[in-house]
Amino acid sequence: MASLLKGVGFITGAASGIGKATAFSFAKHGARALAIGDLNSAAINDTAAEIKNSFPNIEVLPLELDVGDEKSIDEVVAQAASKFGRIDYAVNNAGVGGDMIPSGGLSSSDWQRVVNINLSGVWKSSRAEIRQMLKQQPLEPNSVRYNRGTIVNMASMYGLIATSLNTPAVAYTATKHGVIGLTKADAIAYAREGIRINAMCPGYVATPLLKNSSASEIMQREIERTPAGRIAEMEEIADTITFMVSPMSSFMYGAGLVADGGFTIQ
Question: Does this UniProt record's set of keywords contain Ubl conjugation (predicted)?
Answer without folding.
Answer: no
